[in-house]
Each structure stands twice: as C-alpha cells, then as structure tokens.
C-alpha cells in the first residue's frame, strides 16, 4: 500500500488485514512506524493495530521501521512480534532509502537489537540490493556474504531476508547466495524477499526452494515493488504464486484457500 498516492481509509486497512489474519500466513507485514512525511500512507499504523483481531489468529505481526525512534515506537506494542529494517549493501540505495551510510545503518541495527531484545521482539533485516544494484557499484555474492556475516555473527540477527530490490535475481545468483549463506549460518533463518517480472517468478521460487530456503515473502497479486526497478511489470512476488508452487510440490502451508481467495478479491478492490 505504501506507494499508492491516495490514502486508504483506516477502516479499509483494518478490514483487509483482519481478513489476511484468517488466511493462515506465518507473518503479516501490517504497517510501518516511519515518518508520515516520508510515507503518508502508513501514518495510521498505530490506529490500524488497535483494531486488529490478533487474539483470534496464530499469525504474527511485523512492522517496518527506519530509525531508532520508529523502533522504540513499534517495540512499545505487545501485539507486534517482529520489527523489520531495510539494510542495503548498496551505499547509494541506503542513503536514498534511509538517509544513512552503510556503516551508520549497521550501527543502527545494533541499536535496534538493543531495543528489541528486552522487549521480546525479533529484528528482521532485509538485505536489500542483495542480488545486484542499478548504480554501477561493486556487487558479488562475496560482498553479500560479508555483510551477512556482520549482521548475523556480529550483531546476532536471526532472520535475514535476501531482497531482490529491483528484480535482477535469477536462477544462478539465487542458487549461489542461498547455497552459500544457509550452510554458513545454520542458526539463522535466511529468507527470500523477491521482486519479479510475471514471466520469471517460477524460476526464482524454484531456485530458492531447491537451495534450501523455507521463508518466502509475497504480496497478493504482486502489488507494490521498488520504484528503482524502472519497469512497471517488476513488482513484489505474488503470494498466490507462492501458494501455487507449494501446492504443486506437496508443501504444507496451512493456507485456507477460501480465505485467500476472499483476500485477493479485496486486495484488487482496495489497490486497483
């Protein structure tokens, strides 16, 4: 929702997320504690949270944060299980996305860990530009692995989502990254936050799954994505495609198909 120009009414957000909480997902990224000037769409996150039916679901809640203040705000809510922070291995993108250098961002992750641990929250770090970037900066699986080492071994991050910010992941680099990082960090959960052109989703999901990934992020109907992709067809990984892949490969998900269908219909109405 965050990239949509028109503000979505709080009641509609609540209705939609409450439906998502019935589908059977492990986690819902339900909102962001960020500057309302930067992302006006998320200015009502606290109000949305107050109306969610969390007592009727096993699904956990994740909120995105971008600085120490946002982390403190999110950690104050008992209902929130995870705080998510976008950590880029691209210096240029980190500055554009959070206004910080990579080194400053690494220090911020340490501060966020210190906020999360006493509040019994888990910090999820999205390793953005993990598969390449559009700025001509050096990129390699080794660079991604080096930053992963700093985050997981150095700062104790337990959930690291490799993020294909601009849709450049493919079978080769997905396989290389996951087969390198999953064995290297057996105590961490290495996930896939993939963006994709509609024609290439299966190649990406299959590669990640075969490389040992068990955590996948998606958005219904593929809504959203990153403006840096410069291709309107490159959006988030469609959640329904992930569910289709799981069903085809006899992977148990616990997804309620009828509720998923309802949620897809509502997503199309709300987000066009």
Order of helices and strands: HEHEHEHHEHEHEHEHH
Give the N-to-C terminal Cα separation.
11 Å
CATH superfamily: Aldolase class I
Q: Which bin fits the share of residues in helices?
A: 40-55%
Structural class: alpha/beta
Query: In total, how many beta strands?
Result: 7
Mean pLDDT across all amino acids: 94
Query: What is the count of structural domains?
Result: 1
**Uncertain residue segments:** none
The CATH topology: TIM Barrel
Order of adjacent strands in the largest pleated sheet? 1-2-3-4-5-6-7
Alpha plus pi helix count: 10
Into which percentage range does the β-strand content fall?
15-25%
CATH architecture classification name: Alpha-Beta Barrel
Task: Give the overall form.
Answer: globular
Largest sheet: 7 strands, mixed
- Which oligomerization state do the chains in this entry correspond to? single chain
- The top level CATH class name: Alpha Beta
Q: From the alpha carbons, calculate the radius of gyration and give it in angstroms.
A: 18 Å
